[in-house]
Amino acid sequence: MFGRILIANRGEIALRIIRAARELGVETVCVYSLADADAPWLELADQTVCIGKGPSADSYLRIDRIISAAEMTDAEAIHPGYGFLAENAHFAEVCRDCHIEFIGPSPEAMSRLGDKINCKKLARAAGTPVFPGTDGEIEELEEAVEIASEIGYPVIVKATAGGGGKGMRIAHNVAALRTAVTAAQQEAIASFGNGAVYLEKFLDHARHVEVQVLGDKHGNAVHLYNRDCTSQRRHQKLIEEGPAPGISPEIRDRVCESAAELIRKAEYSGAATVEFLMNEKQEFFMLEVNTRVQVEHPVSEMITGVDIVKESIRVASGDPLSWTQDQITLRGHAIECRINAEDPSKNFMPQPGTIETWQLPGGPGVRLETHVRTGYRIPPNYDSMIGKLIVHGRDRNEAIARMRSALSEMKVAPIATTIPLHQRLLNHHAFVSHDFDINWVERLLEE
Ligand code: MV4
């Protein structure tokens, strides 16, 4: 095991990684920006190193400064958390060149799955269900037109380097498709420096279901079942829950095992998430693979008892996975609500400022992941998430009741948060009967 690791992140995930490291007897070094100089999580780190000014480009994205901080403090490994440099294969490569372990996949495995066309090819070979569409990049416009007429409209054109909805175009007919391909290619070059686009069948009214997986450096991979992350707004997830409701155990196990097989085929180590869309007939189609620990990982931890962050540090140090698939069993149901410092009544306007009231929920099955305390000043530079409220219950109904109760205990002032929106969603009949799709939150907000 490592003696000391560096955490190249901030906020609740930095705190989560500190806790995991401490349990493993591993010392931590936290890098921080001037905007986070008095941040609470830094008090729990064994060492801290300032790496620059508030803007991420001057601090949390500065590979040179992060590597220097690791070398200065003799950190043997770097945990990137999520966001920032977590899915930057160049960063993972620089770490390797500097003989620092990147706590995550090799740069090769990250690139293999990060490129969506390549990922889809690997998925097909692994038996992971994918959308029908072009086998690879669209080389000739006429080839896309031909495939579209075979699979039927609507179709979607996506950039291989894209993500989070960027560079996507939906086409309902051949004329729209011709425009969409050219536009998507140009947008892909401008945004990602890679103009490769591919085509697939467009699925409307879908649910977003993802599979949590873990791989090690010895060719092993396990899945931790799935999560439903359908409740989103503008590609920002609001509520995640697991296991995903409304899926038969047979289909669930088959899809989860195919996700683990994809990770094995990619020789991937660390935590990853294989994202799918699911239709009303419980048919699954892979979207992409996230090659990092995700915000919503606690949902999977609560329903399986696996500590994903500890496990990711263990496998990076070369240990084999400490769990076999048959030791991982489902227990109950978990729901996570992301608490953002945003005002839902003002178009989710970010709310920087000082938190004067911070009253927390508790009780059985209630977990709060947050770096915030009373008097904490939210800097304007970063993501607005100030905490994650996760509840666990013996079934979905108990988890919903616990979440409602926990949300009502929580008091945050004077800044506005997403708590009232969560209360509205958790009380909505569509949520209770899990009868909703990826557009339901935005539709509800328009009412
Ligand atoms: C799709 C799709 C429908 N059909 N692909 C959006 C982000 C990117 N990760 C993939 N996305 C989508 N891909 C096909 N073939 C619909 C979306 C999509 C979406 C997916 C998941 C969660 C929310 C979404 C919101 C709008 C569109």
If you had to describe this structure to a student in words, what would you say it looks like?
With 447 residues, the chain is of the alpha+beta class. Helices cover 33% and strands 25% of the residues. The chain contains 14 helices and 22 strands. The strands form 6 sheets. Strands 13-12-9-10-11-14-21-19 form an 8-stranded antiparallel sheet, with helices on both faces. Strands 3-2-1-4-5 form a 5-stranded parallel sheet, with helices on both faces. Helix 1 links the parallel strand 1 and strand 2 (27-32). Helix 3 (89-97) runs antiparallel to helix 4 (107-114). The longest helix has 19 residues, at 174-192. It is globular, with a radius of gyration of 22 Å. The model has no long low-confidence stretch (mean pLDDT 97). It binds ligand MV4.
Q: Can you give keywords for this protein?
A:
447 residues, alpha+beta, 5-stranded parallel β-sheet, 14 helices, 22 strands, globular, binds ligand MV4
Ligand set: ligand MV4
Largest sheet, order of strands side by side?
13-12-9-10-11-14-21-19
Strand content: 25-35%
Shape from CA axes? globular
